[in-house]
């Protein structure tokens, strides 16, 4: 609105002033300002109005000479050209961003509200501005052996890690259909990273992840941790840290030699499993204090599992406004199909 407001301001000032004002130079700034927000047609209209206001005797703009009029005309024509170039570039950027968003959502699609007997809610905030995918990943899939969930963190973050994330998620989705046990799924992911790393000299790809395997009724979950701690269990308003041994990270080729330990946990009605990446647990405030997840989590939980991740994110940003790492959270609430 600034170019229009400036044009109107010049006209009103000249009309109400008892003496002529030497403010015609302001009209020369209107077409360049129009370029910032308007297309070629609107820029041309504003430029033409500027020339009209400059030359109409009613506004008494000090009887500008031909040089002043020609200067404003030249600036207006140049502004129309620049507006055309900017509009074309903006349209191209919009198209490219739309394609990028579709591609990124194909890698990490939004979680459904329920997969089998498990209610799901996830939150992802990539560290690199303008991207939807970074170095963290999660997915929940149903297969012939039950519902499987994974959440992990690959080496690095931002767009440089998207290729590894896509490779791991592809391997996970295939393993859900083929592997009867969660340790078999972990072995497939480990092999995938090891093979990808072997194809590139000096590449040392690795990732940490937690795999969960739910029984048909959601009453039991088997957990495998590969290089990171297991999920937190929210039960009756309390936080329980499950005794899950972090195994070796994925990508070292050790999953088949030293299979990860599987921990089975029996779940009750109303239980929720909460997983968070190190972007949450290692976030620090201005004084260097870590975000107290275990202390804050009970007060943020409510009856809706889907709201928990958003509540934690809002609380995390208040604690640490400048979050520089990928932030991922996954909330799983097992229960029967007809229940909560």
TrEMBL record:
The chain crosses the membrane at residues 34-56, 68-85. It comes from Streptomyces viridochromogenes (strain DSM 40736 / JCM 4977 / BCRC 1201 / Tue 494). GO terms for molecular function: phosphatase activity. Keywords: Hydrolase, Membrane, Transmembrane, Transmembrane helix. Residues 118-334 form the PPM-type phosphatase domain. The keyword Transmembrane applies. This is Integral membrane protein. It comes from the Bacteria.
């Amino acid at each position: 609105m600034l170019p229009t407001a400036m044009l109107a301001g010049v006209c009103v000032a000249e009309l109400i002033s008892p003496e002529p004002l030497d403010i015609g130079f302001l009209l020369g700034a209107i077409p360049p300002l129009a370029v910032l927000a308007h297309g070629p047609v609107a820029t041309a209209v504003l430029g033409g109005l500027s020339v009209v206001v400059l030359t109409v005797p009613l506004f008494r703009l000090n009887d500008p000479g031909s040089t002043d009029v020609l200067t404003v005309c030249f600036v207006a024509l140049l502004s129309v050209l620049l507006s055309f170039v900017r509009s074309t570039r903006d349209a191209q950027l919009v198209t490219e961003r739309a394609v990028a968003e579709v591609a990124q959502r194909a890698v990490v699609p939004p979680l459904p509200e329920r997969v089998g007997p498990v209610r799901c809610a996830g939150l992802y905030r990539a560290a690199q501005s303008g991207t939807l995918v970074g170095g963290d990943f999660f997915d929940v899939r149903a297969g012939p052996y039950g519902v499987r969930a994974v959440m992990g963190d690959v080496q690095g973050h931002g767009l440089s890690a998207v290729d590894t994330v896509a490779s791991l998620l592809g391997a996970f989705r295939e393993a859900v259909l083929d592997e009867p046990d969660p340790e078999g799924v972990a072995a497939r992911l480990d092999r995938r990273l090891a093979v990808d790393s072997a194809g590139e000299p000096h590449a040392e790809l690795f990732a940490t992840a937690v795999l969960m395997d739910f029984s048909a009724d959601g009453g039991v979950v088997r957990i495998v941790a590969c290089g990171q701690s297991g999920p937190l269990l929210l039960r009756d308003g309390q936080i329980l840290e499950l005794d899950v041994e972090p195994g070796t990270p994925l990508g070292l080729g050790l999953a088949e030699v030293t299979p990860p330990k599987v921990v089975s946990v029996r779940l009750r009605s109303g239980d929720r499993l909460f997983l968070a990446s190190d972007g949450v647990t290692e976030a620090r405030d201005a004084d260097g204090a870590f975000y107290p997840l275990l202390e804050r989590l009970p007060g943020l939980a409510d009856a809706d599992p889907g709201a928990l991740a958003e509540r934690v994110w809002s609380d995390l940003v208040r604690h640490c406004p400048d979050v520089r790492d990928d932030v991922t959270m996954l909330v799983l609430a097992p229960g029967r199909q007809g229940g909560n």
